[in-house]
């Protein structure tokens, strides 16, 4: 019930600047808009249009709030269906191409069981707390670098060894080329109602030069976009060299465990939790 109340309040969140709200409503109309282009253009256009009437508010924070809620409302499952169909087709074609180059290709189908935040400091979207966004497919995604980091951290924490290869050989370094190749992770199926949801965190104070003043705390809600729970994604990993069956099975199992440890940002507070629905190994 608490989540339902929060979701309803996100859908109905008001604005401290009606000019900015109207400006964004007329700019971000549907999933056919290229979100990166339209948000960056709107950030400038709306500032020029609304700077006078919105001069008493934090423009970046207000823009982020309205844009996040706008993204949630236009990226409903029904509206995003054709985008996800195209994305799934793209990933399937990618897998076929990868099979021509690498010895082993592993595909996991996973489902989010909590909201996903990733690349929160990305400069591609002009938001206070951002989200990794593919400029061509026009959907959020998990960059391969984030996936590599999650798997490497799990292997290191659990002392996972693959056929005597050290972490530098497996994941690459300035001296070694990685034996494991990771690819960007894309959503391919929506959950119940939304592909994107607007979430909120409320910092109570700012830390300045290492000093936190509890007496002058000021709760400041920050609204930002996340991938919604229930979203299904395809995770693709390839091996440059073959592994014998026993070693390969263990490697695949460990990749699955790494994925279930959490993807993206803020995993320590419950974001990015997933369940592995299926896995497919092709040689």
UniProtKB/TrEMBL annotation:
Superkingdom classification of source: Archaea
Chain ranges passing through the membrane: none
GO biological process: defense response to virus
Keywords annotated in UniProt: Antiviral defense
Domain annotation CRISPR type III-associated protein: ranges: 128-275
Pfam family of the protein (one): RAMPs
NCBIfam families: cas_TM1791_cmr6
Name recorded for this polypeptide: Type III-B CRISPR module RAMP protein Cmr6
Gene: cmr6
